[in-house]
Amino acid sequence: MRVVFGRPRKCFTNFILGCFPMLRTYPELTLDKWAQKYGPIYSVSLGNQLFVIVSDPGVAKELMITNGAIFSDRKPTLIKSETILVGRGITANRYDHQWRKHRRIAAIWLKQQSVERYTDTLDYEATDMIYQLCMDSKNGRHINPQPYAGRCALNNMAKITFGFRTDNIYHPFVKQALALSREFMNTTGPMSNLVDFMPRWVQKSLPWKMKRCGKRLHTGLLETYGGRIKDVEMRLKEGVQVQDCLAKTMITIKDEEKLDDLDMTMLASAFMIGGVETTASVMQWFSALIPAHPSIQRKAHEELDRIVGRNRLPTIQDEVKLPYCRSIIKEVARCHNPFWLGTSHVASEDFVYKGATIPKGTVVVLNTWSLHHDPKRWIEPLEFNPDRYINDNDSASTSARRPDVYTRDHWMFGIGRRMCPGMFVAEREIWLVVSRMLWAFEMFEIPEKPVDLKEYDGMSGQSPVPFEIVLRPRFEGVEEILAGELSRTQV
Ligand code: HEM
């Protein structure tokens, strides 16, 4: 069976490695360069695996939405799905009965109406993060906001998943959980492990370092998150009051839903991995970008002073009244999507597209870097310019449902039936943090320590390399308002 889309020749002349050597760093950029030469859909090989790279919204819609019944599978991979998630992780699960069950259970906590119920938690964590930043950056002390964003996103997910939170960035759970997420991102990108694309006999016969790393990560998930579920289970058995959370829900329905300990651990891990590093990454890129763009910052301050004033913090209800602040978030997502290559979909049967066959088992990668930088849609696509979104009042989920996919705001949350179920909670968390940081601080670059806005950390998930900035409260009373809000809304 032949795929007749264009293809970079080198990929097919190196029979063992395919394109792998060319995709080790910043693969989205190489893939974008090839898109310019080979068009909006082309094929590459990695080891013995055929990939189709999609770089156009219309093609993405045709395959992954219109033909979502065919393009919603995932590839079983040695490292991610078999070694780390042992066949149970919702993100890596095949498109089957087990995936449907896990997705349904995840939705109990992630659907829009559920997020309304715990918005007070998100609200509190955002204020707590800004307050901690305010205290730790006093008198012009240089500060790296990254661990603060990491802990805020972590607390939100820990509260939703286990009914638990940490009280400062030095809590051991913060270090442990953030290290697990980072390691997961680095070992599981769509093109991270050539071993996943070798024949099975090669995979079995080689003592791969990545496999050891995968086993270590699996044990880490069992100990860290499996341990927390056991703890919730024990407290429930002892009749101790346990706050509503995913763990409690799963324990309550486990017989009726036939969930075993591994199912529960891996579903909780999906929340802790999928929902922490990603959301934190957007908050971190925001903190890295804003000090380098003082005029954008001034415009946001003007909008906040006009609509919210200086006597209270911006809230969820203010979001529709603050289009410029909202545009900043969309533009951060466009310029710095945490996963340029998302999570790949797989064809579960042969499919003919424009006369070419995409064979069953082909991995379909959406290169969102190309979609987010298409010069036909975006003027000066490399520029950070929130004004491009000023008339876009839709949330990311509403935008993702637009019939005309060429007008979608961004592709950060993926597409089709596997689209991120955490997008409602993520958008809300990011709004609360970003609008409140803008409200509270003037943010400055440190001339001798310029923030690197190009390099990024990680193979699959990207966040900025460590940086420091200066945060100056915008007016007297910021600290008091934050402290007052914290004591009023204690969760
Ligand atoms: C800015 C934050 C986030 C980004 C950029 C993000 C991105 C993504 C992407 C690209 C996918 C794959 C979509 C596809 O296959 O087309 C995904 C899936 C997923 N995300 Fe998120 N995510 C974020 C936040 C969250 C949060 C807060 C949660 C909460 C638990 C979450 C849970 C999940 C889960 C469980 C899946 C697997 C869905 C499936 O395979 O059916 N994500 N996410």
Please render the helix and strand layout as text.
Blueprint: H1 9-13, H2 27-38, E1 41-46, E2 49-54, H3 57-66, H4 78-84, H5 97-110, H6 112-117, H7 119-136, H8 146-162, H9 172-187, H10 200-205, H11 209-237, H12 246-257, H13 261-274, H14 277-289, H15 294-307, H16 323-335, E3 345-346, E4 351-353, E5 356-358, E6 363-366, H17 368-372, H18 396-400, H19 423-440, E7 441-444, E8 456-457, E9 463-464, E10 470-473, H20 478-489
Parallel strand pairs: 2-6
Antiparallel strand pairs: 1-2, 3-6, 4-5, 7-10, 8-9
The site of protoporphyrin IX containing FE has 27 residues, from helix 5, helix 13, helix 14 and helix 19.
Protein name: Cytochrome P450
Family: Belongs to the cytochrome P450 family.
Pfam families: p450
Explain how this protein is built:
With 491 residues, the chain is of the alpha+beta class. It has one domain: Cytochrome P450 (Cytochrome p450), CATH 1.10.630. The protein has a four-stranded mixed β-sheet. It has a two-stranded antiparallel ribbon with strand order 4-5. α14 packs parallel to α19. The longest helix has 29 residues. The chain is globular. The relative contact order is 0.16. The model has no long low-confidence stretch (mean pLDDT 91). The site of protoporphyrin IX containing FE (HEM) has 27 residues, from α5, α13, α14 and α19.
Fill in the keyword field for this structure.
single chain; 491 residues; alpha+beta; 4-stranded mixed sheet; 20 helices; 10 strands; binds protoporphyrin IX containing FE; iron ion binding; Cyt_P450; Cytochrome P450
